Amino acid sequence: MALSVQSVTGWVASNYKRFLRSFLPRGAAWNKNPDSVIDQFLSALAEELARIDARSYVLRDESDPRLASELLLDHERDLGLPNECTELGVTIQERRAAAYTQTIALGKQTKAYFIEIAAAFGYTITITEYTPFWSGIGGSGDPAGDQQVLFYWTVNIDSTVDPVLFLSGASESGDSLQKLAGYNAIGCLIQKYKPAHTIVNSTISGPDFSIAFDDSFDSIPSDALTSFSGAFSGYPFSSAFDVLIGGAFSKDAFDSNFVIPL
Questions:
Q1: What distance in Å separates the CA atoms of residue 184 and residue 87, rounded to the nearest whole number?
Q2: Residue closest to 248 by CA, chosen among 235, 256, 87, 215
Q3: Mutual orientation of helices 92-104 and 72-79 as an angle, nearest 10°?
Q4: Which backbone phi and psi does 155 adopt, to 5 degrees?
Q5: Per-residue pLDDT for the chain (262 aa), expressed as one digit of tens each?
Q6: The whole model's pTM is what?
Q7: Cis link prior to 82 (omega < 30° from 0)?
Q8: Torsions phi, psi for 163 (to 5 deg)
Q9: Each residue of 111-127: b (16+ CB within 10 Å) or e?
Q10: Burial of 53 (0-12, 13-18, 19+ CB in 10 A)
């Protein structure tokens, strides 16, 4: 989530100097010439007051995790970050997004709440809920699910998202110049905050997730219920294509299209 620092500023040194001069007594003993000792003393005081004033506005911005730099570590410590949903090798922009997500994670059972969690990482999701086929309510052509479908819902993640770019003033040394991130964090957070009696499925759509090979091996390991996101990330092949999360593929060898078990 892009957010810019507001341009509101306080008094500068010249404002404070005029303010301090207004407190001086009248009379010839109080030499107010620019090269006088008193004027130089007031200039020094004004510079420090202006510095403190400017820092107060920085503190205002630092109180927002989306803008924090100097206090980001303090936000993370207060919010219990990094946690089990924190990805490795995250940029400072991703750390800010994670801190903001943790700040707003008050816990709700609405679609809007989970959509807001994904939006904090820059992703657009939709949520599909299911209804059993009830006599007297269902009609011809409606899905014929049983009562258990009440406890299932699907998160549809659109992978068409702007990458996290290295930006002056928003990034730091060591951050990637360009990175697509947040898939695993979104899935983990939704699993963490979902109603405990429900089961979440997830789907990912977009050009990076096809059933054939692409340059990044962006295939989606899955178990019977949940599709997880991400590429193979440099992990070596194993006999069953085991990856870091999501489990192994059901076949030890290639099939025609890397079909994910449903």
A1: 7
A2: 235
A3: 40
A4: -100, 120
A5: 444 444 445 789 999 999 999 999 988 888 888 889 999 999 999 999 999 999 999 999 999 999 999 999 999 999 999 888 887 667 888 888 889 888 887 778 899 999 988 888 788 899 999 888 887 877 787 777 778 888 999 999 887 776 666 666 666 666 666 566 667 788 888 998 999 999 999 888 766 544 444 334 444 443 434 444 444 444 434 333 444 444 444 444 444 444 444 4
A6: 0.54
A7: yes
A8: -70, 160
A9: eeebeebbbbbbbebeb
A10: middle
Cβ-Cβ contacts under 8 Å for 106 (sequence gap 6 or more): none
Within 8 A by CB and 6+ apart from 82, the residues are: 76, 98
CA separation for the pair 86, 97 (Å, rounded): 11
Between CA 129 and CA 110 the distance in angstroms is 11
Tokens describing residue 54: 């400017």
**Mind giving me the DSSP string for 46-77?**
HHHHHHHHHHHHHHHHHTSTTT-STTHHHHHH
Beta carbons of 164 and 91 less than 8 angstroms apart: yes
Give bridge partners of residue 199 from the DSSP assignment: 152
First-last CA distance in the chain = 33
Contact (CB, 8 A) for 236 and 243:
no
What are the residues whose beta carbons fall under 8 Å from the beta carbon of 186, sequence distance 6 or more? 117, 118, 121, 123, 125, 157, 229
Side chain identity, residue 93: Q
Helix axes 13-21, 37-62, angle to 10 degrees: 130
CA dihedral 188, 4, 46, 11 (to 10 degrees): -130
